[in-house]
Amino acid sequence: MLDEQISHDQITRFLSQEEYTSKELWQEVKGTVRKIEREDGVLIFDDTIQEKPYTDENEIMCWHYDHSKGKAVQGFNLLNCLYHVGEVTIPVAFELIRKPVMYSDLKTRKVKRKSLETKNELMREMLRVCLQNQLKFRYVLFDIWFSSKENMVFIKKTMGKEFVCGVKKNRLVALCEEDAQAKRFIRIEDLDWSEEMLFTVWLKDVPFAVHLVRQTYENKDGSTGTLYLVSSDTTLAREALLSVYQKRWPVEVFHKSLKQNAALGKAPVRRVHNQNNHVFAALYAVFKLECLKIKQKMTLQVVLMGSVETFIRILSWT
């Protein structure tokens, strides 16, 4: 495809060189981010699992619980932080979930692995770095798997930013501050809901009020689902809150592009070092696709139909 302008050995040397981390990714995307960043930008956090069932196990290529499948799968788990403003989505930080500690499960007697840091702790560290990098944004968006009280308090109180996130239906809330102090809580699903309702509530162990809304949606199979959202920005009306959370959707498109357009799961490498660099390269390739989309003012689909010269520019990091 590339008329032998990039050799197999170049790729091999790149993967085995120094380890490329979130810091190197920021250095590469910083120039583009500075050109498009705005105060109303958002940070989106989400993770994705790339299955690799036939690759030898190590601290990143191991078993992770996949919520979409309801079971553990073998592969690697990638936590991403995306900066989204307007129609542009750029990765600004990432972490591969590492499980270096091996232990024996007392019930099953099987050897398992665990991490030294939780994904929520990694998320807060990534937020600290984004703040140090003086990235302009207003909201942090994430789903129910990152809606811990620690994350909420860190974003609102420590960072001075706002968040919009999903919460589980059994989360406990109080309808006034006095009820919260007296520990009179009720499950979210048991509130007196109507479709256009917006509540101001106090989540258990969260020391500030949040807005709470419910959204009903239809799945592809015709079934219906219910999503509960909370926002620390109590100036938002219901429709504005839903509109802000809709900006989280680009992370799903990003993960799809990583797997389908940047060959995230197709690296024939075994060492942790090389596997990490392959993930970095896939992230950087999707970033370059986004740059081409901005420059050419095209959709991603049109960019991907471009010429050989386009793909050479995408791979210019080699």
Description:
The protein has 318 residues and is an alpha+beta fold. Strands 1, 2, 3, 4, 7, 8, 9, 10, 11, 12 and 13 form an eleven-stranded mixed beta sheet that branches. A two-stranded antiparallel sheet has the order 5-6. It is built from ten helices and 13 strands. α3 packs parallel to α4. It is globular. The protein has helices at residues 8-16, 22-36, 119-132, 149-158, 177-181, 238-246, 250-260, 272-296, 300-304, 308-314; strands at residues 42-51, 62-66, 71-85, 88-96, 101-104, 111-114, 139-142, 162-167, 172-174, 186-187, 198-203, 210-218, 224-231.
Short summary:
With 318 residues, this protein is of the alpha+beta class.
Oligomer: single chain
- The count of strands amounts to 13
Beta-strand fraction estimate: 25-35%
Shape: globular
Give the low-confidence spans.
none
The overall pLDDT, averaged over residues, is: 90
Put simply, the count of helices is 10
| Domain unit count | 2
SSE class: alpha+beta
Helix-residue proportion: 25-40%
Distance between the first and last residues' Cα = 16 Å
- N to C succession of SSEs: HHEEEEEEHEHEEHEEEEHHHHH
Over the alpha carbons, how many angstroms does the gyration radius reach?
Answer: 21 Å
| Largest β-sheet summary | 11 strands, mixed
Structural features:
alpha+beta; two-stranded antiparallel ribbon; single chain; 11-stranded mixed β-sheet; 35% helix; globular; 13 strands; 318 residues
Break the fold down into its secondary structure elements and pairings.
Blueprint (H helix, E strand, L loop, with lengths): L7 H9 L5 H15 L5 E10 L10 E5 L4 E15 L2 E9 L4 E4 L6 E4 L4 H14 L6 E4 L6 H10 L3 E6 L4 E3 L2 H5 L4 E2 L10 E6 L6 E9 L5 E8 L6 H9 L3 H11 L11 H25 L3 H5 L3 H7 L4
Parallel strand pairs: 1-7, 7-8
Antiparallel strand pairs: 1-3, 2-3, 3-4, 5-6, 8-13, 9-10, 9-11, 11-12, 12-13
